[in-house]
Design brief:
about 350 residues, globular, binds adenosine monophosphate
Amino acid sequence: MNIGVLGGGQLGRMLALAGYPLGHEFVFVDAAPEALSGLGSHIIAAPDDDAALTELAGRVDLVTYEFENVPVASARAVAARVPVYPSPAALEASQDRLAEKRFFQSLGIPTAPFAAIGDRPALEQASRTLGMPFILKTRRFGYDGKGQAVIRTVGDITPAWDRLGDVACIAEGFVRFARELSVLAVRGRDRALAFYPLVENLHADGVLRRSLAPAPAMSPELQQAAETIATRVLEALDYVGVLAIELFQVDGTLVANEMAPRVHNSGHWTIEGAETSQFENHVRAITGAPLGSTAPVGVSAMLNLIGDLPDIAAVLAVKGAHLHLYGKQSRPGRKVGHVTIRSDDPAALARRTKRIEALLG
Ligand code: AMP
């Protein structure tokens, strides 16, 4: 099939790398001429460019997206011409942190306590109802910890408001989590469901640094709880494709933080560490093919390459290490690649992961 993708970053690139062996072709819409490093066919335009979307719809059998800030109206306009998976409703539910939290709440999925913040008095009120510390986040266009401020004392309120308050915000109670987890789930056009094992994620400054999969010290109850949460979201949205939900583990329970209606950084380990990668399963789902097995193959660690590239030869010299470079220019804080280390032996995985971490500095 000819698959259209809105967005042309590394997620789109890895979708194409998984989709070509299945016989599919890809057309991307991305405003950056340097996107995709020459993979697939590229319409250089913003994802809300009407002419570009008309051209795309004429060239492909279906459309998906690899970033969630595609304007909903654009996704709906495309959906009037060719099928769009996941449906634009999934975009709508995940673009606005307030709508997203309310959506989780409506499905009985636990979240941090939250409040809509439209003005400064509302923020002061939230500091009293949520207690300190709490987090102020912009409702839209936040990613990788951007558009967020932790408010620890009354003195932090004014600087946080001055920095973020010119747009609509949400305040969230601070969750004292034991660890961060994510669940990756996939739903086919035939409504079949599959779930990857829970992943343990380590963030620094709001950016994912390391994922371990399957998450160590997992209980079947926690996995089941995550699958129940994901199933509610997938079914409520009549979702098709891969969905990621970021979770906090608090004691033995799960609290939903946010969801991404697309393949996700915390699922990159599946390329080598699962029977079928998240990228292949997304392609299978949207094209109406049977889903592939989500079973893990041994244990995996995924380390993001952020800002600069490490000594490539030294990384490749580590047994079980798999390097993925995105073809992006180095820039502070930018994800330029990742390394997955896979092993059948958790102790060997830990040793090799340490060696790679030392190379990353
Ligand atoms: P987000 O952009 O919502 O994924 O937030 C980025 C990171 O900030 C998360 O991965 C957490 O480490 C942290 N964080 C976000 N929201 C909260 C919260 N309500 N309580 C505690 N930590 C949070």
